[in-house]
Amino acid sequence: MVYGEGSPKTTLVDNDPKCMMQDTSDMKHRVTDMVGSANECVAHVDHIPARTLLDTESMITCISSSFVNTHLGSLPKFPVAHILCVKGPMDDTLPYHDFIEVEIELPVNGVNHTIGTFPVLISPDTNFNIDVPLLIGTNVLDRFYEQLNEQYGKLPLEQVSKSIRVALQTISLRNRHLEKRCGVYGLVKASESLSVEPGQSVVVSCNTQVAIPIIRSMAMVQSCHGGTYPSLF
Length: 233
Hints:
With 233 residues, this protein is of the alpha+beta class.
């Protein structure tokens, strides 16, 4: 989770000597460009309201441990290790040990729309998910998108909140571009021809052109020592 200035969950750390050498207003402007607003709404989990992050880049849905213990403690927990292993970009296994099955609802035109019952991973408590206990990923959002299209014939964007509208429009944009590219996100072209033997690891210099446009923006770089990706930085 990224922390910066701009929302109640973010804090600008300005006592770093390197930061102190920079103009304060310039640093605040950079942080504003670096940290956007969170796409949040209120969803219902087994009819219990929960502040929710709608994440169109997450393939899973997860919920904080404290929320489960407080509101859903009677539900059975199932071990996840034998069916799923969730890893980050550095090949590190993320700490999901159990999941629960819950009904998820999102508001449409002032009424809770039941999307269905989903397996939801239980996440350890963090500074973020204490306030925003539920993260909804594409395993739920894609079905929600399909249901609204079937029910209304098109996306009822005027009948949902801004955060839900942004999520639906993002999925719609992704689907349109993937349809044009026959399901291909992007092509990666190597700068040279080479053979890779079974079990061999090689670093290949490549160029890529993604199918979905990406606006020019600021990004933070993280070293990938020991991870799946080569250490380029």
